[in-house]
Amino acid sequence: MHSAETVTLARLPSGVPVQTTVHTYEPEDGTDGPTLYVQAAQHGREINGTEVLRRLHGQLERADLSGRVVAVPVADPLTFDRGSYATPESLDSVNSNMNRVWPGDTDGTLHERMAATLWEFAGDADAIVDLHTGSPDMLTHTVYRKDDDQSRELAEAFGVDLLLAEAAGEDAEEEWSKRNFGGKLRVAATDAGIPSITPELAHNKQLVEPAIVAGVEGLLNVCRSMGILAGAVEPWDGQTYRNHLGRVTAETSGLFVAREDVQLGREVRPGDHLGWVYDPTKYTVLQEVEAERAGVVYSITREATVTAGKTLVGVALPLGDDFDEDDPFEDGDEAFEI
């Protein structure tokens, strides 16, 4: 049984409501069962998740369900309408990024109020999947909270080959607090005892068929693993790395040119040359871009105009405390293959 509800998330200064649609799929006979909450397009340019939910809709309408799925295809209409990552300052000058304010505040800023409204649905779920989209040149992967076994099981059920474990709170590096990662939906949910994952379905602004197919099958697998849908989930046989720690950033602003042999899935070690940042007017090289830690390339910046601090190459580090950070592959471990 399917129902759709128009929900007012907040109101603009003119009184115009900011609205979205919440879809609910549940058993025809009204029996109780586990609830999965899934949303897409917190960041408006990340549209593959919205298409994933449209295709999932047709399958869930026809399915014999033993639980509930609550789906929000456009979590942030303000950014969706602009095709943007965040809102302009005129709408929320304090919290321009909705994915930094969860579980929200009913008396807070525009984004805090929007998150609080959706948390009324998400906070009652038994598991949460927050669909995102990476950069144009990124391996599709799923992020979960490091050392949270239930979230890892959810990530494995989703089924993509690459998992990234994200350290949080006191276990994280300085970037965690500086970028207010504690306000992510996935983090707030995990803190509340709700297993939660963030699939990154590369890439943004364009509908990419392999990423969409991976998203639909991933959600069906999650439903099977929770007992909402019948059927078994194939054992996961991918690889897990650590998130954020290996990012190589721009030391200064300029144009970034990646080496031609820097490809997704490539294994790198400290000192490996990855490209150049140069002055576009004087042609001088401003930075020889090098890997700082050993790992596997999972994202490459192709938008060449960069500012200081921007991530140029994402390098995922092998997970675990017993590896040699200078050469984690020396014992025969293989890099992620695509």
Question: What does this 3D model show about the protein?
Answer:
This protein is α/β, with parallel strands linked by helices. It is built from seven helices and 17 strands. The strands form two sheets. Strands 1, 2, 3, 4, 5, 6, 7, 8, 9, 10, 12, 15 and 17 form a 13-stranded mixed sheet that branches. It has a four-stranded antiparallel sheet with strand order 14-13-11-16, with no helix packed on it. α4 (149-158) links the parallel β6 and β7. The longest helix has 18 residues, at 209-226. Mean pLDDT is 91; it is low at 321-338.
Which key features would you list for this structure?
338 residues, alpha/beta, 13-stranded mixed sheet, disordered C terminus
Indicate the topology:
Layout: E1 2-11, E2 17-25, E3 35-40, H1 48-62, E4 68-72, H2 77-82, H3 110-122, E5 127-131, E6 141-145, H4 149-158, E7 162-166, H5 174-178, H6 185-191, E8 196-200, H7 209-226, E9 239-242, E10 248-249, E11 254-258, E12 267-268, E13 273-278, E14 285-290, E15 295-300, E16 305-306, E17 311-318
Low-confidence stretches: 321-338
Structural class: alpha/beta
Helix content: 10-25%
Rg: 20 Å
Distance between the termini: 39 Å
The largest sheet is: 13 strands, mixed
Beta-strand content: 25-35%
| Average pLDDT figure | 91
Care to count the β-strands? 17
TL;DR of this structure?
This protein has 338 residues and is α/β, with parallel strands linked by helices. The chain has helices spanning 48-62, 77-82, 110-122, 149-158, 174-178, 185-191, 209-226; strands at 2-11, 17-25, 35-40, 68-72, 127-131, 141-145, 162-166, 196-200, 239-242, 248-249, 254-258, 267-268, 273-278, 285-290, 295-300, 305-306, 311-318.
